[in-house]
């Protein structure tokens, strides 16, 4: 009985870890897109100043 409970716990912890990693990956992708937008805006501002 104890082995079954430990097995289920191990499985749950593994799933939690995978979910966390995927969540972090999603957040990093969002951050990356935001950074790209910021770079784009700064580039436009710089171009305007050079005119």
Structure description:
- The protein has 51 residues and is an all-alpha fold.
- It has 1 helix and no strands.
Helix content: over 70%
Shape: rod-shaped
Strand content: under 5%
Query: How many β-strand runs?
Result: 0
Q: How many individual helices?
A: 1
Q: Report mean pLDDT, rounded to a whole number.
A: 94
Order of helices and strands: H
Give the low-confidence spans.
none
Q: Quickly give the structural class.
A: mainly alpha
- Rg, alpha carbons: 22 Å
CA distance, first residue to last residue: 76 Å
Q: Characterize the biggest β-sheet.
A: none
Give a short synopsis of this structure.
With 51 residues, the protein is mostly helical.
List the helices and strands and how they pair.
Blueprint: H1 2-50
Summary tags:
1 helix; mainly alpha; 96% helix
């Amino acid at each position: 009985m104890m082995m079954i409970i430990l097995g289920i716990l191990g499985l749950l912890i593994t799933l939690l870890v995978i979910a966390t990693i995927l969540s972090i990956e999603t957040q990093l992708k969002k951050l990356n897109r935001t950074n790209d937008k910021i770079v784009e805006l700064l580039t436009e501002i710089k171009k305007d100043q050079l005119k």
